[in-house]
Amino acid sequence: MTRLPLPKGLTFVKSPARDAVADNRPVEELVAGVLARVQAEGDAAVRAFSAQFDKAELDSFEVTMEAREAAVARLDPQTLADTEFAIANVRAFAEAQLGSLSEIEVEVRPGVHLGHRNIPLERVGCYVPGGRYPLLSAPIMTIVPAKVAGCEEVIACLPPNAHEAMIAGCHLSGADRIFRIGGAQAIAAMALGTESVPPVDKIVGPGNAFVNEAKRQVFGPVGIDQLAGPSEIFILADHTGDAEMLATDLLAQAEHDARTRVGLITTDAALARAVLAEVDAQLATLSTAETAGQAWRDYGEIVVCESEAAMIAYSDIVAAEHLQVHTEDAHSLSKKLRHYGSLLIGTNSSVVYSDKCSGTNHTLPTMGAGRYTGGLWVGTYIKTVTHQWLTEEGVRQVAPPAARQAASETLEGHRRAAQLRLDRMQVQA
């Protein structure tokens, strides 16, 4: 359900059957209990919650270097090659992004020097979800940009029952330490620190509702990348759209989770009807139809817009996590869009490419957050901090207005601090 008014000229061929926003109070209460107990009991609490939630009895949480290397050795050769291919692309793009970040120092007035530096975070925690599938791209997307940014230590946490290939992915991506801890207890351990897990400065990565809520509750003393809801894909299409391709891409994302939000926004009513029929036809033979079909029935939508302007306006309200553009002039239309997580331009681009290996990051804003933020990138792991230094001429420039402003605000301490340096300079003169 959107909080913004819908543009005119929309006809819903299929509307979502359910609201994507659920009652989160039970999750909030459970997570608060997890955090409190981990803070009080450390490793003992983490061990107890791992047994309770993951059915895992662990003497040690950290994955040894021998186990990491063994996991890599047991990877299928083609899987290893494909993982290294994805890592290379994500690293190359992150390095290009890092190269675009400049440090500055400018003299805004005579003697008033201002600047900023880009400083990598010292220690970050990357949550790597286990999920229903071994998502080998997940550790790549969070760990590789952190290493490119220059973080001193990158901690990875993944559920103890995660596929062994996920450990290999963390290792190949460059994680300094890997812990077999999942769920809210993993977020608690990274945020608060335990006997085994060091506290981090920022936590990144997607997860289930409990992980998401834990990130929300620890935010403040610890930074987070974003609060992620269920995955989303929307596609903009005109009369040139291919119904088979559109339905295929929608269902590819829908199979992630039964709460995935999928939608087609089009200016062509005939295409809308064709896609509706094609989705049903493909679900009949899709091996993941139980999940994808549930997502489509509950959260799928198809809307016909009377004009391109209405299509753009509705898309910007949705602010989809992944937004594909299948129109006659996709590049031109794309320049008119402003709210989305990541844009896939033209029919040759697909969410599956960016999700897996093309190089852009798949950790993206959902639930309308694309209206105010972008996704995970190398800058997520860097803080831009300012500095200043003044010559005596700089003091002469800024001290008088600063002192006057402080006086007008009746802040006498401020006025004295502003005036002191100027007075001393005048005495020395």
Automatic annotation (TrEMBL):
One of its GO terms (cellular component) is cytosol. NAD(+) binds at Y127, Q185, N208. Substrate binds at S231, Q253, H256, H322, D355, E409, H414. PROSITE patterns: HISOL_DEHYDROGENASE. The active site is at E321 (proton acceptor), H322 (proton acceptor). PANTHER family: HISTIDINOL DEHYDROGENASE (PTHR21256:SF14), HISTIDINOL DEHYDROGENASE HDH (PTHR21256). This is Histidinol dehydrogenase homolog. It comes from Tropicibacter naphthalenivorans. The lineage of its organism: Bacteria, Pseudomonadati, Pseudomonadota, Alphaproteobacteria, Rhodobacterales.
